[in-house]
Amino acid sequence: MKLNPKRMRLRWCSPAVGVWTLLALFALVSEPCVAQALYPRPALVETGGIVRAIAVQPDGKIVVGGTFTSLNGTLRKNIGRLNADGTLDASWDPGANGEVYSLAISGAVIYVGGTFSAAGGQPRQNVAALDTTTGLATSWTPPINTGVAAIVIAGRTVYLGGGIFSSGNRTRVGIAAVDAVTGSLTSWNASANAGVSAIAILGNMMYVGGGFTSIGGQARSRIAALDLATGTAASWNPGAADDWIDTALIAGNVIYVAGRFTTLGTVARNYLAAIDLSSGQVTDWNPDPDDPVNALAVAGNQVYATGGFYHIGGQTRLHLAALDAATGDATSFVVPLTYTGAALAATNNVLYVGGAFDQAAGQSHFGIVALDALRHTVGRVALGRMVRSRSPYGSKCNCYRQPRAVSYRWCFRVSRGPSAHESRPL
User: Fold this and answer.
1) Please, which residues have CB within 8 angstroms of residue 130's CB and are 6 or more apart in sequence?
2) Regarding the domain delimited by 43-423, which CATH topology (the fold level of the hierarchy) does it fall under?
3) Strand, coil or helix: what is 24?
4) Tens of pLDDT along 117-148?
5) How far, CA to CA in Å, does 381 sit from each of 40, 85, 159?
6) Among 358, 399, 377, 353, CA closest to 64
7) Does this model's pTM top 0.85?
8) Mean pLDDT, all residues of the chain
9) In 3-state terms, what secondary structure has residue 147?
10) What are the residue boundaries of the structural domains of the chain, listed by start?
11) 170 exposed, middle or buried (CB, 10 Å; 0-12, 13-18, 19+)?
12) How far is CA 165 from CA 112, 126, 176, 225, in A?
């Protein structure tokens, strides 16, 4: 039986299930009797580690950062760029001599944060500004002496989340504001008492998450709203989280937060929650994952999550899930990963997923994959082959039976790796 991958639609409501049908079941995302069409796969892209950050340029090129040594068989140290079709952009090779954890694009500049001492061909401590055309570091050189976990740009200010920042007689804990032109620390000072790993800005308000219990002059446990002009804490206060908040994403009148917490305010919430931006109240939205969530993205009426979980939104979903933005239930999107995901980016109906996996939906995709966010299929761009060493965390075979009464099982190997906080640079 010869299948056309461009047109493949297989029915499987019978015990007589062929081997091709079993393979197609990895891409089941719709009604129980339909496997949706798979796009043909381009050549895989090799990396040497983990994709931890993804940023998509306006021209469709994809910047990836993390811990790796090559892309598409070509030397690339921890940062590189792919064309929209998944091929390597051979003209752009800034390099970084340490891990890259965060990326942000502003005009002709790509801001890079992590734990490195050189990037773009120049000495740069943990943060750098790279030219989008040449890949070379610009003259922007902030005095940053701590790992950078988050970068957000607002106007002519670059906000950095991390540990302790210091320059001359100025010290900033958790979060710092840097002039985008001069590279100097500004007078803005939110004065947290511990690290900040998540930053989201809406209007004149900044929302931050991390491990702090005080920030902006007020007691705030791991989540707070700060005045963007002054850095003082606003009255908005969802209440204490019992552990780190590592990710924050604003969509409409809601901020989604993820991390290692199991309570938020007075409400039980495992690793993922939604908070009303007006009232500061934790909403009823509760996907209840069974392991930490490392990254979030929103496309349409769905919230995408990736991390170490096996179960989320009331369904089995291995490390990647689409959640209904209204109910928190897992949708019919089923693209299992064989290892934890670490980064998400959604743009133009394409969902880019980065992490430490070596398969997505039963196909070889190492480190990064692109998915059709509308039709929930493995996408036109398959961006991943990651070459990594054998996992020290071991692996196991997980078999799942489809809810219908049919006589088959599909099985694949998965490896449980480090959770979000074990890869955090702070």
Assistant:
1) 94, 109, 110, 111, 112, 119, 120, 136, 137, 138
2) Methylamine Dehydrogenase; Chain H (2.130.10)
3) helix
4) 999 999 999 999 999 999 999 999 998 888 99
5) 9, 6, 32
6) 353
7) no
8) 80
9) coil
10) 43-423
11) middle
12) 16, 11, 7, 20
